[in-house]
């Protein structure tokens, strides 16, 4: 599958590893940085979604998405992403993500509106569980983070090139190919969310670690065991 992740914000909080451990399959190890597990709330816009050899369909190929994710390693030592939830602004995308990639997709009423450095994300879950989870976030992007300025935590949280899921009860992985993220500093000016709690976590505490990006083109490969 080909698409672009645009106007994305990475909002991360530290969590005790044991809290995150119970939400991840036993065949995976929760990765930590500075002694903590990290959970990310990542709202963005999907653009130009298409399968190999097919054209984009304008009505279906662009929509908002918001993911709740953490970082894991399998028994072969491969690092990747484990999704706790994915909310999509298109019902077809949510159904396709559940059926084709066995990921915990939800259909939500969503929007992404950018005005210069300011971006407003809105998400209200429709199915399954109408109205039981939401995320309203206002973000202000700052100066670019130059490659030589990137610290280890930025790479740990954003340079991820493998997705894990369970397909028919078995752990599977799909490669994710994209160029390096052009990151910017970011400030969270407002947040009202319950997606993390709906995923089984306590509400986050303390200020999050923030990064923003205008986006990158992405190719997601087929699942393999």
* Mean of pLDDT: 93
Our count of helices gives: 5
The assigned structural class equals: mainly beta
Intertermini distance: 18 Å
Helix proportion? 10-25%
User: What would you report as the Rg, rounded to the nearest angstrom?
Assistant: 16 Å
Largest sheet: 7 strands, mixed, barrel
Topology, number of strands: 13
Into which percentage range does the β-strand content fall?
Answer: over 45%
Model description:
- It is a single chain.
- With 225 residues, this protein is mostly beta strands.
- It is built from five helices and 13 strands.
- It has helices at residues 17-21, 58-61, 91-101, 152-158, 195-198; strands at 2-15, 29-30, 32-33, 36-50, 63-73, 79-88, 105-115, 118-127, 134-144, 162-167, 170-177, 184-193, 209-220.
- It has a seven-stranded mixed barrel with strand order 1-4-5-6-10-11-13.
- The two termini are 18 Å apart.
- The model has no long low-confidence stretch (mean pLDDT 93).
